[in-house]
Amino acid sequence: MRPSFENIDLNERPFLVFWEVTRACALACKHCRATAQPHADPQELSTEEALKLIDAIAVLRPPMLVLTGGDPMMRRDIFDLIRHAAGKGLRVALSPAATARLIHTDFMKLKEAGVQSMSLSLDGATQETHDAFRGVPDTYVRTLQAARMAQEAGMHLQINTTITRSTLGEVDAFLELMKELKPSMWSVFLLVPTGRASLDELPSAEEVEAVWHRLEELSVDVEFGVKTTEGHHYRRVALQEAKRKGAKPARHAVPTRDGKGIVFISHTGEIQPSGFLPMTAGNVRQDELAEVYRSHPLFVKLRDDDALEGKCGRCEYRRICGGSRARAYGMTGNAFASDPLCSYQPR
């Protein structure tokens, strides 16, 4: 089940904590935010530091802790970290790479350790397009296999799909694939130019708008949830369509964005607004995570809807959307500028 948003003050605690437990990964994905590498960084948090970080995360009481990477399965102590987090009352989600290592992992042991949710990436609707995107053969087959294994183990399954210029034409094919996989949630990620992701792969704002309208249309008739990552203006489209139809949106929109309900901890302990917005506000090795999230000027300003500039600052939907601060930063150098991939003109 999706964690509840009720009674959460996003100024006091985040809705989601993303922790990049390692940058080690066997894949070579074209869009990799982390620019992952085959071996662990010698500066990544030690087991002792990692356990201390989990204690600090528990203070914030987020509805979900997402262990990501790199590939979190590359950490030898991953089961210990999962068990410690679950023991602190944290809802643990795991975002592994679809490798042979994952397929040979006992998913029931992951579930017993405390993994309640698993997110897997499908960035091509066919084996050819997905494997080309991921940079390693057979990742498509392994992803489908891992999805089945997660569901059989009783985990909540989320499928993440990155929309790029080259995959725009696969939206309907992706939908048919989701109907077969039956995930709990399909999260459509709109590319941010950071890490290995390049500007050349970004679709136009008009193309993005068309995708959001298509997703809103499709979301009405499917059994799984549909949401977006770094595509906050999908919430605006859903509200507009609901108003036009005289109905309520298909699902409640949690008004998160980089630094607002989201906090990211890097493999070396850096505290950032998200994994796609590389602006560092502290480090867990010497700073209190809760204090940085609640009080650091960067986070405070990112949560201020009236601090947004350009048309995002004038937009009547800024409180539920606010645009991607990461994409604004990646494309303009200003984290408070308008989201360049939104075509909407405020009234």
Describe the structure.
There is one protein chain. With 347 residues, this protein is α/β, with parallel strands linked by helices. The chain has a single domain (16-296), classed as Aldolase class I (TIM Barrel, Alpha-Beta Barrel). 35% of the residues lie in helices and 14% in strands. It is built from 13 helices and ten strands. The protein has a ten-stranded mixed sheet. Strand 1, helix 1 and strand 2 form a beta-alpha-beta unit. The longest helix has 15 residues, at 205-219.
Mean pLDDT rating: 91
Number of helices: 13
CATH topology: TIM Barrel
What's the story with the biggest beta sheet?
10 strands, mixed
Can you tell me the number of structural domains? 1
- Helix coverage percent: 25-40%
SS class: alpha/beta
List keywords for this structure.
TIM Barrel; alpha/beta; 347 residues; ten-stranded mixed β-sheet
Quick take:
The protein has 347 residues and is of the alpha/beta class. It has 13 helices and ten strands.
Helices and strands, with pairings:
Blueprint: E1 16-20, H1 47-60, E2 64-68, H2 78-87, E3 92-94, H3 100-103, H4 107-113, E4 115-121, H5 127-134, H6 139-152, E5 156-163, H7 171-181, E6 185-190, H8 205-219, E7 225-229, H9 233-245, E8 262-265, E9 270-272, E10 282-283, H10 289-295, H11 297-302, H12 310-314, H13 325-332
Parallel strand pairs: 1-2, 1-8, 2-3, 3-4, 4-5, 5-6, 6-7
Antiparallel strand pairs: 8-9, 9-10
Helix pairs in contact: 8-9
